[in-house]
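Action item from last meeting closed. Structure (253 res):
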């Protein structure tokens, strides 16, 4: 199966607060070895065997500094959720699309292809995740946020596959869930009190979360375990940026 892909590159100058002396307009525009960060993501997508057309949503100014071109581009709408809805509406005729962020410059085309090969072609939502020990072997000082479940500690990835029709049909529910994410009563009602307690205690199973998400979405939700820490390694601060610069610098020789 060949996928349309969406690069989420919004956030504007707000996304630069954790970085030093960046005279750019967004995180994806931060230069790494002479190229904007998002250029590495675009290069990986262009080399992926299972990706054809690419939609870019975000800071349009940065595109003029990238030799590789996207097929479509739309301006930042101001929030991740609104940009996602815009992407889903743009590709609403597709059965599934790939969505990824602009701040994972260590991503490679084969990682993207392997993730896509593991996604169920009939799923409404496929979410990548990586084991804590895999990520911390890669970067011991990662300081990432991990979720504890029965199977261990995991960090969410930055590659997802979604069915536009399924997600758009649940738009109001998703908006309500995001706005109420700190309301325990609402979350308990939506996910079930047993799942919430299990999540807090770290005893809930991945399969249980998949089953509940499937019921909520009205289509299969699939958690896709990946062995590549680069999928989870989004650049959120200066320390991580310096690590990436060193890593990519070594790859250049």
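Sequence:
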């Amino acid at each position: 199966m060949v996928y349309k892909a969406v690069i989420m590159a919004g956030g504007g100058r707000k996304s630069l607060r954790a970085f030093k002396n960046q005279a750019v307009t967004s995180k994806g525009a931060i230069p790494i070895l002479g190229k904007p960060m998002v250029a590495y993501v675009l290069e990986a997508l262009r080399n992926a065997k299972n990706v054809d057309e690419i939609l870019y949503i975000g800071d349009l100014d940065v595109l003029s500094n990238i030799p590789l071109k996207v097929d479509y581009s739309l301006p930042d709408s101001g929030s991740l959720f609104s940009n996602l809805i815009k992407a889903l509406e743009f590709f609403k005729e597709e059965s599934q699309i790939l969505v990824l962020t602009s701040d994972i410059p260590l991503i490679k085309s084969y990682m993207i292809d392997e993730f896509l090969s593991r996604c169920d072609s009939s799923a409404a939502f496929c979410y990548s995740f990586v084991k804590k020990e895999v990520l911390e072997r890669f970067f011991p000082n990662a300081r990432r946020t991990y979720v504890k479940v029965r199977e261990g500690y995991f960090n969410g990835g930055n590659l997802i596959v979604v069915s536009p029709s399924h997600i758009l049909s649940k738009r109001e529910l998703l908006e309500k869930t995001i706005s109420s994410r700190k309301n325990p009563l609402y979350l308990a009602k939506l996910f079930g009190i047993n799942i919430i307690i299990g999540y807090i205690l770290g005893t809930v199973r991945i399969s249980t979360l998949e089953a509940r998400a499937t019921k909520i979405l009205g289509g299969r939700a699939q958690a896709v375990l990946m062995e590549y820490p680069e999928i989870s390694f989004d650049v959120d601060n200066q320390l991580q940026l310096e690590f990436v610069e060193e890593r990519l610098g070594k790859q250049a020789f």
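Note appended to the action item: Residues 4 and 52 are 6 Å apart (CA to CA).
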